[in-house]
Amino acid sequence: MPLEIERKFLVIGDAWRQDVTRSIEMRQGYLAREGQASVRVRLEGAVARLNIKAAVVGSARAEYEYNMPADECREILATLCVGKVEKTRHYVPASGAHASAVWEIDEFAGDNAGLLVAEIELASIDARFDRPSWLGRELTDDKRYYNHALALHPYRDWPAQDRA
């Protein structure tokens, strides 16, 4: 079973921007409300994918991903989705012991504008990694910050005291 192991954090400040190696705009939409799985389509530039993840909170969960035709993805985004997320993903190389890893920093737009979240994929749940100075509070176990949750309950609608 394909397994995604990832940790998620708030991003503080702009120091990370100087190390960005590339960025890509993404639009993604979810095909079902909350349940046993998160099912989404994502358009990353001109590349389209169908993704299915186990709807569990934490650093490890089953994940399946398949390429799909971009025109079909656009059609699904326009007609079938119950919630959408717009963001730019910035890639920043990790340093130290996990220099081969990459931080993915999502700068949200639209209904989730103002939110910056960093993720790092790891080889194991207990893998160590260096924490850059711009890394804030850990969000791995906070369901509200998962993209599926943000599509259904956007950041802009959160009470002020719940925002980062």
UniProtKB/TrEMBL annotation:
The active site is at Y30. PROSITE patterns: CYTH. InterPro entries: CYTH-like_dom_sf, CYTH_domain, NeuTTM/CthTTM-like. It comes from Solimonas terrae. It comes from the Bacteria. Residues 2-152 form the CYTH domain. PANTHER family: SLR0698 PROTEIN. This is CYTH domain-containing protein.
